[in-house]
Amino acid sequence: MVEKRKVILDCDPGHDDAISMILAAANDKIEIEAITTVAGNVEVDKTTLNALRVCDIIGLKDVPVAEGQNRPMVRETQIAESIHGDSGLDGPNLPEVPSKESIDQHAVDLIIEKVMESDGDLTLVPTGPLTNIAMAMVKEPKIVPKIKEIVLMGGGTFGNWTPAAEFNIWVDAEAAKVVFTSGVPIAMFGLDVTHQAQATDETIERFAQIDNPVSEFVVELLRFFKKTYKEVFGFDGAPIHDACTVAYLIDPSIFECVDVRVDIETKGEFTYGMTCVDLLGVTGREANTKFAQSLDQDKFWDLLSDALATYSK
Ligand code: RIB
Ligand code: CA
To answer: Which domains, ranges and CATH numbers included, belong to the chain?
Structure first.
């Protein structure tokens, strides 16, 4: 029996972040305490607007959305509009003005408040750069022992922004180093597994058959996302990277994971942002990460399809 998980979704929507939100909101094993936003795919004002728009589409009215950091801890802001478009959610026609605004509280302070008032049962689910999470740990170290788990999308044994680094980690490797050395239990969904979660034309058609406003929204997201992934990487599918985090929380059996040591490179000219995944244990350093290596395709796509079908027509 999988326990119900209280989560904060820290995200940079972003097509796959949006689908991750949709999956979380649809499943009663997930209780979304808050949504926090960070600059990543696009600037934080846009990721916040997108998070609010997605909340409208899925009817998530009572969950607070707090805007976070617009730049990494040390480096200058880097965004990925080549993949997600100028708005960060190009493709679907979205209402310009969401029905609610983000709260006045900064995301970092909301994360601190929610963790400190929790019983140690709060899971952080970052699917963008780790700036907000790291800043919260630095500002209030007392949250570290109270965080149940960090289930993140990022990193991998190869890169998609440089040969060595995946985008989320590359944007703010210093933040990633704070998180991976914190001692908080980490489950890492890197490119090794998220590239197996590619939505093909067949998957998109399967979702289109569900025929409700949310599934239509996801179909439009995926059609755009698949197009940019074809143009930029030559892929025949759209990797729904971020949804792997929530899928794991709902049904861990979907994934095969190994416990390994992961260290973050923050100095290398060619390797800045690399997650050094010690698969063979050659460092002898204590494992700090549950590293996802593979996923059960049928279970993953059935979970997403079933989630979309829960939304009303
Ligand atoms: O490298 C993939 C990651 O970068 C995903 O989280 C995507 O949304 C972008 O943030
Ligand atoms: Ca993301």
So the answer is: 5-309 (3.90.245.10)
